[in-house]
Amino acid sequence: MDVVSDAIAAVRVGRPSSDRVRVGGRWCARLAPYEGAGFHVVLGGSCWLLPDGGEPVALGAGDVVLLPHGTGHVIADAPADAETVARAVPFERWADGGLPRRPRTHPGTREVEMLCGKYRLDRSHAHPLLTELPPLVHLPARAGEHPELRAAIGLLEGELDEHRPGASLALPSLLDLLFVYMIRSWAAESTAGAWPAALGDPVTAAALRALHSDPAAPWTVDRLAAEAGVSRPTLARRFTTLVGRPPMAYLTWWRLTRAAALLRDTGDPLATVARRVGYASPYALSHAFRREFGTTPGRYRNGCQGLSDPAGQYV
């Protein structure tokens, strides 16, 4: 796998949930802080997003917003004062049918149609690529920009009718694809932050691809430098500067993070997990795991019971 795919897979739990909302007139809805990531796609019309502690953001048709840290926020027909925000209706009332999806509106009143959803994430061992994301990522609709993201939105619009054959499988898969494209688009646009720079540096990116493609391999700095086509000192200097830790230290951390995800998401025996992440024995993995996370693999697995969604239902 690659860095972005692995970063998402390491924290994703269950399947994404979403609601299609169409509303007009005067309205204001609150979405509480969430242990995951939230998103909005404006399918038509316009509205405003008011993040807790942040400035209002105007959204138009085709705009995409990702709240990667689950920041609480309000969506409304217009910028709202504190008193109006305090009276905002909980968003769940829309999802539960407590508010009309297609209310009658006066002639000339503009409606907005949105796809609102969230991804459930286990942040206990999040990859720094995800922790570095800002509280709000706004990707405005601009002609010619982010064609993959726009294509995914188009496919999503076609699958929002849950009565279409195969929709129950297609929709969550497309929502996962949307998450990847949102992060990819942010990394392509970002002019600040270590990880966009690391992924854009050919030497560091090559080393990261090698480590993530086969973390269990017997990597050394010399072998990794050969993969990247540079000398050992060059690799060590560039990798450490951009990633924030030396190559072998990053590999150790990633192996243990991957082990944690396997313990959470699978029933594989500890010996199998150890082999999959590059440890010669369960004892070696247990020792390293306890040193990194302060608990044993068994206790960690027991503490994760009930967190995953093995039935694959929306959560």
Question: Can you put this structure into words, describing what you see?
Answer:
This protein has 315 residues and is α+β, with helices and mostly antiparallel strands. 45% of the residues lie in helices and 17% in strands. The chain is built from 14 helices and ten strands. It has helices spanning 3-11, 82-86, 92-95, 128-131, 147-159, 167-189, 194-200, 202-213, 221-228, 232-243, 247-265, 270-277, 282-293, 297-303, and strands spanning 17-24, 28-31, 36-44, 47-51, 57-59, 64-67, 73-76, 89-90, 111-120, 137-139. It has a five-stranded antiparallel β-sheet with strand order 1-9-3-6-10, with helices on one face. It has a five-stranded mixed β-sheet with strand order 5-4-7-2-8. β4 (47-51) and β5 (57-59) form a beta hairpin. α8 (202-213) packs across α9 (221-228), α11 runs antiparallel to α12 (270-277) and α11 (247-265) packs across α13 (282-293). The two termini are 26 Å apart. The model is unreliable at 98-107 and 309-315 (pLDDT under 50).
